[in-house]
Specification:
The chain is an alpha+beta fold and 166 residues long. The protein is 31% helix and 23% strand. The protein is built from four helices and five strands; from the N terminus they run H-E-H-E-E-H-E-H-E. The chain has a five-stranded mixed beta sheet with strand order 4-1-3-2-5. The N and C termini lie far apart (55 Å).
Length: 166
C-alpha cells in the first residue's frame, strides 16, 4: 500500500502520470520506411522500472599471492568465502598463494572483471582472508569455457567442488 495524498502522483515522477496506450485497431507491422529508419538508429527506451540489459555467465579465475600464512588459516578463510559467496566453485591454496574459481553473472566482461577484482578485498575481513594481493585474473564467457574444456586445453571442470590444497 502506498502512503500519499489521494490523487497525488508517485514520488520521483515529477508530477507526470505514466499511462499505457494501446496500439489501436489500425496498427500493423508495416511502418513507413522513415519510421523504420528512425527506429533502427535510435534505441527504443525501456519501460519504466525495467532495464534492457542482458546478463551472461562469466567464468572467473582469481589468483592471489602474498606472505606465508599457516595453511589452517588459509583454508578457514577460503571456506568462509565459499559460504559467503554461494557461486564459488573451487579454491586451491598453499602457504603463499591461492586460486579461486567461480561463475559470475554480469552484463559484460568489464562488469564481471570489476566484481571479481573487488571480491578478495571486500571479503578479506568478513571471511578472514589473508592480506594477499590479486596477481592474476581470467574472465571468460560461458561458451569459451565450454569450448576450451571440450578441446582439452582449458581449465578443467571444477570437479572436486570445494576448498583443496594445491
Amino acid at each position: 500500500m502506498r502512503r500519499a495524498r489521494p490523487g497525488a502522483p508517485p514520488r520521483g515522477t515529477g508530477g507526470r502520470a505514466l499511462t499505457s496506450v494501446g496500439a489501436g485497431t489500425g496498427f500493423d507491422s508495416s511502418r513507413s520506411a522513415d519510421r523504420r529508419d528512425e527506429r533502427a538508429t535510435r534505441p527504443e527506451p525501456a519501460p519504466a522500472g525495467q532495464e534492457r540489459t542482458h546478463s551472461k555467465l562469466w567464468h572467473i579465475t582469481l589468483c592471489v599471492s602474498g606472505s606465508e600464512i599457516p595453511l589452517k588459516e588459509v583454508r578457514r578463510g577460503l571456506e568462509q568465502l565459499a559460504h559467503d559467496h554461494p557461486f564459488l566453485l573451487t579454491s586451491r591454496y598453499a602457504h603463499d598463494h591461492a586460486e579461486v574459481r567461480y561463475w559470475e553473472e554480469a552484463r559484460d566482461l568489464h562488469d564481471a572483471a570489476a566484481v571479481a577484482l573487488r571480491l578478495w578485498g571486500e571479503h578479506r575481513s568478513s571471511a578472514g582472508l589473508p592480506p594477499w594481493e590479486i596477481v592474476g585474473l581470467e574472465v571468460i564467457d560461458r561458451e569459451t569455457y565450454h569450448q576450451r574444456v571440450a578441446e582439452g586445453y582449458g581449465p578443467p571442470p571444477a570437479a572436486p567442488v570445494g576448498v583443496h590444497p594445491f
